[in-house]
User: Which sequence fits this backbone?
């Protein structure tokens, strides 16, 4: 099914038990994102190399300031499995597209800007400058799950 730029595939009717299994497996999911990122200085080839070489990075995330009023205040460790960084042609030297493959539950916005030091390491701390996220798209969710046939 396509509606504009959103696509759905492998849609099935399911049971409550299957949904419970999906929720229980939330920690094992991997999610892939595309993010438009801004840096306070122009991106360099060294930035691209550093980000692209980083694998299986464990980040410690305090509950983000933007959600702490409705979520339990705690520290979560999440893994960033892979990152790719490419320049955005036509947007200027401060902009790039960041592709991420992460453990489910990672606060992506905070991983980019660092949430005032509450997420470490972050893209900002890795590159040694301010960073912000302007757009974020979920590109995929991976999890071993075979839905029961209804």
Assistant:
């Amino acid at each position: 099914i396509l509606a504009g730029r959103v696509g759905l595939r492998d849609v099935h009717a399911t049971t409550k038990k299957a949904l419970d299994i999906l929720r229980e497996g939330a920690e094992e999911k991997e999610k892939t994102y595309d993010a438009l990122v801004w840096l306070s200085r122009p991106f360099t080839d060294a930035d691209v190399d550093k980000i692209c070489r980083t694998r299986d990075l464990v980040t410690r995330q305090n509950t983000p300031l933007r959600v702490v009023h409705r979520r339990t205040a705690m520290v979560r460790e999440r893994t960033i499995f892979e990152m790719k960084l490419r320049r955005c042609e036509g947007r200027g030297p401060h902009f790039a597209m960041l592709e991420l493959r992460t453990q489910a539950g990672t606060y992506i916005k905070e991983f980019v800007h660092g949430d005032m030091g509450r997420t470490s390491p972050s893209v900002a701390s890795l590159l040694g400058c301010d960073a912000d996220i302007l757009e974020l798209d979920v590109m995929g969710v991976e999890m071993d799950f075979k839905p029961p046939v209804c």
